[in-house]
Amino acid sequence: MSNTIRLDANGLFHHTAALALLTAHAIPGAERVDGAVYQRVITVDGRRGAANIQLDPDGATVAFDGAIDDTTAAVAIVRR
């Protein structure tokens, strides 16, 4: 089971440039980029899981895996 949310961009969002930056600075074992999806390992309330973030010109769609129950806390982590 996963929780999915939408984060809309405020103004112009250059998703391809953002993906290029994330790819260049990905931390092995914690982050990776596959196509238009950025995957990041996060810990919320002591539970480890993944945030799969699909970027597009209008913002991002974020899917948290089943280990992440508190989406409010998870979104705060992803926004950093």
Description:
With 80 residues, this protein is of the alpha+beta class. It has a single domain (3-79), classed as DNA-3-methyladenine glycosylase AlkA, N-terminal domain (TATA-Binding Protein), CATH 3.30.310.20. Helix content is 24%, strand content 42%. The chain is built from 2 helices and 5 strands, in the order E-H-E-E-E-E-H. It has a 5-stranded antiparallel beta sheet. A hairpin with a 2-residue loop joins strand 4 (47-56) and strand 5 (59-64). The radius of gyration is 12 Å and the shape is globular.
Give the name of the CATH superfamily: DNA-3-methyladenine glycosylase AlkA, N-terminal domain
**What structural category arises from helix and sheet content?**
alpha+beta
Read across the widest sheet, the strand sequence of neighbours is 1-5-4-3-2
- What proportion strand? 35-45%
The mean pLDDT is 88
What level of helicity do the residues show?
Answer: 10-25%
Rg, rounded, reads: 12 Å
End-to-end separation in angstroms reads 24 Å
Give the number of domains.
1
Which residues sit in consecutive blocks of at least 5 with pLDDT less than 50? none
Largest sheet: 5 strands, antiparallel
Name of the CATH architecture: 2-Layer Sandwich
List the helices and strands in order.
EHEEEEH
Q: Indicate the overall shape.
A: globular
At the first level of CATH, the class is Alpha Beta
CATH topology: TATA-Binding Protein
How many alpha or pi helices? 2
